[in-house]
Design goal:
By secondary structure, this protein is α/β, with parallel strands linked by helices.
Length: 302
């Protein structure tokens, strides 16, 4: 009974927001939803003390105050509301709110029918990457952990509203064969570099540090001779975003006998400027290690 009531409330809120989006401007919708998001942030931080910040590489560490955590959560909740209307993000009133830099290599690969792996980190509103790319005419799918049968009902509903609904939006770890076929057909697949599943490696990160990286995206690119492109999304505030597609990994780093660390280092080097410019937007889970101790260091989890 409790789950049914919660599900019904979730569906009502879903369709309520979709209705509001149709009758309001972006600014008007933001003004209405921001107090709701802020109230949620207060409730979720009211009885919790911020965890002490763990040691991080220079330029990434920052004090975790209650004010900062609430601001981060408010922003995250607001950004999650955009997932409720992926079909509307292609409208001009929304597309003007998301710049995408570095599309040339991605478009060239698609024109040639070449598969593309977009490697990203849990940084900024990464959960919106697929939606904004689809809104821009690129039917990207996402590879995530878990099992397909456990996909929440609301997400299944959202799949029906996404641009290119005939093209699968998500592949789970028990669908690796399907995701491999998807890539082989010349499509675009998003894969997290800082995920904790699958094979891992340590890649140099600044002075005295390494970053733990999943090798899945690199191995998929090698297997399918795909372009491997670093991808980041930055929240510029007020529902304005910027997606940065970096330089593709050089092809000589993506051969069967190549050292995967070279490809990993290229990906990280392309993303470091964004991490440093917006340290408050990092959401890495367990990726940093000091070279002296080789022990994992928990970073900021907003």
């Amino acid at each position: 009974m409790k789950n049914s009531f919660k599900s019904a409330c979730g569906l009502f809120f879903f369709f309520f927001i979709r209705r509001l989006e149709r009758v309001l401007s972006v600014r008007g919708l933001y003004r209405i939803l921001k107090p709701i998001a802020f109230a949620r942030a207060i409730l979720n931080t009211a009885f919790k003390k911020p965890e002490p910040a763990a040691p991080l590489p220079d330029g990434l560490g920052m004090a975790r105050t209650v004010r900062l955590v609430r601001r981060q959560r408010t922003s995250r909740y607001l950004n999650h509301y955009l997932e409720y209307f992926p079909d509307r993000l292609a409208e001009s009133k929304w597309m003007n709110n998301c710049r995408i830099n570095g599309l040339d290599h991605l478009r060239q690969a698609r024109q040639k029918g070449r598969p593309v792996v977009l490697a990203f980190c849990h940084f900024g509103p990464f959960f919106l990457l697929r939606s904004w790319l689809r809104a821009a005419g690129i039917p990207a799918a996402l590879l995530i952990g878990g099992k397909a049968e456990r996909r929440p009902e609301l997400f299944r509903l959202l799949d029906r509203f996404t641009p290119f609904p005939e093209i699968q939006t998500v592949f789970y770890m028990d669908q690796l064969r399907e995701s491999s076929k998807f890539l082989a057909e010349g499509n675009v697949l998003l894969s997290a570099m800082d995920g904790l599943l699958g094979k891992q490696m340590d890649v140099p990160f600044g002075e005295g540090w390494t970053i733990q990286m999943a090798t899945g995206a690199i191995r998929m690119a090698i297997r399918h001779q795909a372009e491997l492109i670093p991808c980041s999304i930055i929240d510029e505030g007020g529902w304005r975003f910027r997606i940065e597609l970096g330089r593709p990994v050089p092809k000589n780093f993506l051969t069967a006998g190549s050292d995967l660390i070279h490809a990993g280092k290229h990906l990280i080097d392309e993303m470091i400027p964004h991490f440093m410019a917006h340290p408050e937007q990092k959401r890495f889970k367990r990726v940093f290690r000091t070279k002296t101790t080789s022990q994992p260091v928990e970073s900021l989890i907003a």
